[in-house]
Design brief:
The structure is a homodimer.
Chain A lengths: L3 E2 L9 H12 L16 H18 L6 E6 L2 H13 L5 E6 L2 H11 L3 E7 L21 E4 L1 E2 L4 E2 L10 E4 L16 E5 L10 E6 L16 H6 L9 H17 L1 H22 L3 E3 L10 E6 L5 H10 L2 E2 L10 E4 L6 H17 L1
Parallel strand pairs in A: 1-13, 3-4, 3-5, 5-8, 8-9
Antiparallel strand pairs in A: 2-10, 6-7, 9-10, 11-12, 12-14
Chain lengths: 356, 356
């Protein structure tokens, strides 16, 4: 039976990526060796890393603009630490926008390093919208935001204009929509949504913002050292990086971010239209801030949950239950999820009307 | 043609591990989903993590002795930072044994945190032996050593008795030989030698040594937080952890560490006997400290290098060139390398005698 995987991450990747990465484990580049047993310093893997780093900048439109792409380890959560280490001056301060669980996590770590100003927060509304009307101190070392809030289903549609460096956690919507990526000075993202499997973290950083914190940075937490080592300061997560390259190549062949954005908008419109039309459901996030990646929605009558749950499971859908912080349902519609899968869900939602 | 992979790491893994991990990418546990697209919080993956953590303690004989096994990210190099963060008190000090490039790397990071006493070093002899006759300050917060020096081909055969906690980087010989592992308070190892593919780091820590540094430890660098979260503080490196589990299961089915140690000794004896017998070659490391994992050796006459290189390549051997710090050759004979591959190398070394 065809599966429709709505997992919030790790999540669905293109079928061709699964097939090619499995093949590379058995015989990489027709070398007779597995991708897993070759040196990361071998010509073949150095080429993988170089291609992946270059393709990131190409897809984001950041080539030749002073940016470097790195494939690190430790997840976005380790970036919560690396960012203040590298960017917050001793006795300096940073500005953070609190839009959800992960933003709050980043704030918590920054506080260990110095003054951390929360310029806006929607915590009191269970993060159901993106705060507005905040201002960013001009003497902050950087401003940090989270472009998409996986758990709450909100997404920043625009980003503030400020003279301080802008740092953005794009873990759950990178490569999903066209943006002027040069408005950011540092972008980071755990791979396991739109870029690849769990196990590597993308960091795209404008080199000119580095080297100013005045801190003694441990080597593995120092972006400059990773740049100097061309993202091979130590043994990188070989398989996750290779599989990310395959996913980025799939995206490029599809037409890049502009092409996938059209598909993502079509999927989101289809689902949100049904949520708004169907009297049995309601959306969880403010309409203006709805995420095109993660749609959070609830049944108006919880008593319908058992029958709805049975129906979507019977349709081959998985990964639909909402996060405990919101309840209800969350449909994660990452790049590789086909429109067909959204249609299956919408059909189930419609069918529920005839059953209750 | 059959390949004989002597890569120093990432390195050869059992063929059944390649096959099973490739299969899991196409269809994990017959779920119809790829291992790469399932949630790390799913029942199936939580079981993988739990089994892997338990099997580590079982294989090391550390069950029920107050230890916890963690699968982290960032490689051994990130542990160089985590260890002082967690174990070196504010205004405390640590003792390090300097036995090679990686030990020196660990020392460099520790110095950022406080007094770092190098109790012994073989640096002046290009690390060709393990220092002896050193003493460990009784007021050190911990003693750090590196059990096997991949680059130089030396291996600690015994470990000092001390009342301070003993921390050991076993990246390149963990699971290769029987030791009383309870003599260590913290063991760590990048997976990419005897445990699995690149992308995860094993940490085995005695819980009673934690919580004493008095430092504000960033969450991702705090062993206690990882323990509390059962090694899922954030999204773990799913594929590397799963493939490590497969490798550990292979080892258990083979008879565990005692069984593989016999094979490893047979391989090492075969190769070192030939290095000592063959007048064209000489070993690089002190005989008493020779590593059973990485044999470093040189041609007595460099002029023979072109013909020897041509011969071993023709025999299907790869990964044999020595590290630039030593030159010559390095045969890495990790757990999954079959005795047959060592015989092929020895046969080539013998054949060289008839050609020059």
């Amino acid at each position: 039976m065809k599966k429709h995987n709505y997992s919030a991450g790790p999540c669905i990747l293109p079928q061709e990526v699964f097939e090619k990465s499995a093949q590379a484990i058995l015989n990489f580049n027709d070398s007779g060796l597995s991708l897993l047993e070759i040196s990361h310093r071998s010509k073949d893997f150095v080429a993988v890393m170089d291609q992946a780093r270059a393709l990131v900048l190409e897809l984001l439109g950041l080539e030749g603009k002073g940016y470097q792409a790195l494939f690190l380890a430790g997840g976005a959560s380790l970036e919560f630490v690396m960012i203040p280490y590298n960017l917050m001056k001793v006795d300096g301060k940073a500005a953070y926008l609190d839009t959800g669980t992960w933003a709050a996590g980043a704030i918590k770590e920054a506080k260990l390093f110095g003054e951390t100003v929360v310029v806006g927060s929607s915590k009191d509304d269970n993060y159901n919208h993106i705060p507005t009307g905040y201002s960013i101190p001009t003497d902050a070392d950087y401003f940090h935001c989270t472009s998409n809030n996986t758990i709450f289903g909100t997404q920043m549609k625009t980003f503030p204009t400020t003279e301080v460096p802008v740092v953005c956690d794009m873990s759950s919507d990178i490569f999903s929509r066209v943006l002027d990526f040069s408005q950011f000075d540092l972008i980071y993202a755990g791979a396991q949504k739109n870029m690849g499997p769990a196990g590597t973290t993308l960091v795209v950083v404008k080199e000119s913002i580095l080297g100013k914190s005045g801190r003694d940075i441990p080597s593995m937490l120092d972006y400059s050292k990773h740049i100097k080592a061309e993202s091979m300061y130590n043994t990188p997560p070989v398989f996750p990086v290779y599989t990310s390259l395959l996913t980025l190549q799939w995206l490029k062949n599809l037409g890049g971010i502009a092409a996938i954005e059209k598909q993502n908008n079509a999927k989101a419109n289809l689902l949100y239209s049904e949520i708004d039309r169907n009297p049995l459901f309601k959306g969880a996030a403010a309409v203006a801030d709805r995420s095109a990646m993660n749609a959070t929605f609830l049944l108006n009558d919880e008593a319908h949950a058992p029958i709805f749950d049975e129906m979507w499971k019977a349709a081959g859908i998985s990964g639909l239950p909402g996060h405990r912080s919101v309840g209800g349902y969350r449909a994660s519609m990452y790049n590789a999820l086909p429109l067909e899968s959204v249609q299956v869900l919408v059909d189930v939602m419609k069918a529920l009307e005839t059953k209750v």
